[in-house]
Amino acid sequence: QTISAGGYHSTDWVNVKDKDAATEGFVSGYASQEYNEDFAEIYAYYVTLSEEGWNKIIEQAGENGAKIINKKLDIVRSYFLNSWNIDLDTMRSIVLRRSNEVTSLDLRKLD
Predict the structure, then answer these.
(1) How far, in Å, are 23, 49, 54, 86 from residue 63 at the CA level?
(2) What are the pLDDT digits (tens) for 65-84?
(3) Which pTM does this prediction carry?
């Protein structure tokens, strides 16, 4: 709640381009709306984007924006580990692996 306090675009987030949002420490324009969406977007983007996709956001963010995003990611990691005993990096690797396998799954048989 405090990392980007004063930096949220509560009413004009729809005008914030994702590329510009990154430089402000947000993973998307939508994440810049408010802290709950910021948390949710960090989680969703990190878990579902490939390493290349995540690194593109970090690269676009520049040094300052990347520092902010990574600080928020550390909070998300801690939350999942301490509240749910879920290692976010392990979860991410499973989600990405399973996403790559989806085209070869027989969805009629899910043994």
Answers:
(1) 8, 20, 15, 29
(2) 999 999 999 999 999 999 99
(3) 0.91
